[in-house]
Amino acid sequence: MIETLVKNCGILFWPQLILNIVVFALVIGYCVAWRRCEIAPSKKPWESQLDPLANVAVAMGLFGSVIGFISAFSGFQNGLDVNVLTQGLATAYYTTGVGLFTSLVAILGSYFLSVMTSTGRSG
User: Fold this and answer.
1) Which DSSP letter does residue 79 get?
2) What is the pLDDT of residue 28?
């Protein structure tokens, strides 16, 4: 599975991996801080970090799509090359999927933290 992601995400694999790690670390870190009652209910520090990262993840996924589509359809210059076409489309769809997944984790993490701190419940 990891090998397939590395192969199909192409040059955007490492930036997307780093972004995934940062998003997951922030969500887990803020959840732990909330559980330990270290976050004041009136403050929502994750919003200034997770919300922009969600947008960056989507943009990076769409950028990967553009790169993949350009790669896929550049194979038509010398006739139809099915291997170039499928590899380019795979890159487009994998990078979009990874970007959307990362964005969903950031958005849902931010929403969960907002709900939990607004209810006043802790640990």
Assistant:
1) B
2) 96
**Residue 30's beta-bridge partner residues?**
none
Tell which phi-psi region holds residue 60, choosing left (phi > 0), alpha (psi between -120 and 50) or beta: alpha
| CB burial readout 25-58, b (16+ within 10 A) else e | ebbeebbeebeeeebeeeebebeebbeebbebbb
> What are residue 79's phi and psi, to 5 degrees?
95, 175
Domain boundaries, the chain: 15-118
Q: Which of 34, 55, 36, 48 is nearest to 115 (CA)?
A: 34
Instruction: For residue 118, give both structure tokens.
Output: 């607004």
* pLDDT for residue 23 is more than 60: yes
Model pLDDT, residue 3: 83
Q: How far apart are CA 30 and CA 33, in angstroms?
A: 5
Burial of 69 (0-12, 13-18, 19+ CB in 10 A): middle
Indicate the residue type of 48: S
